[in-house]
Amino acid sequence: MKPDVQTAMKMLLQQINETFPFAMPEAEICAGKCVGCPKKVLEYLSSEVDYYQAQLDNEQTPLLGDISRLALVAKKSHRSLSRNKLV
Question: Domain of 79?
Answer without folding.
Answer: 36-87
